[in-house]
Design a protein that fits this description.
By secondary structure, this protein is of the alpha/beta class. It has four helices and four strands. It has one domain: 3-Layer(aba) Sandwich (Rossmann fold), CATH 3.40.50. A four-stranded parallel sheet has the order 2-1-3-4, covered by helices on one side. The protein is globular, with a radius of gyration of 14 Å.
């Protein structure tokens, strides 16, 4: 990534919610011609994106099969203007970023092992919140 992201999505394994949010954010921003980018990371990253997440994102023609979990580092936290955790209210012990100031937690359930209909609902809720976030970031930048 050539520049620091505008937003960092964080969840425990970086294998579900944060990957969905990053992909949707980047696609929506690019489609709108906006100079906004997102990245994602996890406190205990997984080797692969959850299979049910691959399926529901594939339904939107977004291929996450090449994505891997990325470890959240102190440097990422220090240089991040906007950080959103995806469910730290549920798993605060595994998500120490919740103790930081200026972190918003979306409090979404982990899609791992859930039926596809439930994962689609999580995906669609993330999409709705991403739309709001992009609007908020555009307003803050005066776009």
């Amino acid at each position: 990534m050539s520049r620091s992201p505008d937003v960092l999505f964080v969840c425990v394994h970086n294998a579900g919610r944060s990957q969905i949010a990053k992909a949707l954010f980047n696609q929506k921003a690019a489609d709108a011609g906006l100079d906004l980018i997102a990245d994602s990371a996890g406190t205990v990253p997984s080797d692969n994106v959850h299979p049910e997440v691959l399926t529901v994102m594939g339904e939107l023609d977004i291929d996450l099969s090449g994505e891997r979990g990325k470890l959240l580092t102190d440097e990422m936290i220090e240089h991040q203007p906007k950080m959103i955790t995806m469910g730290c209210q549920v798993d605060a012990e595994a998500c120490p970023s919740l103790v930081l100031d200026e972190v918003v937690d979306w409090g979404l359930p982990d899609p791992k092992g859930r039926p596809l209909d439930a994962v689609r609902k999580i995906r669609d809720e993330i999409a709705r919140r991403v739309d709001e976030l992009i609007t908020e970031l555009q307003a803050a930048r005066g776009d």
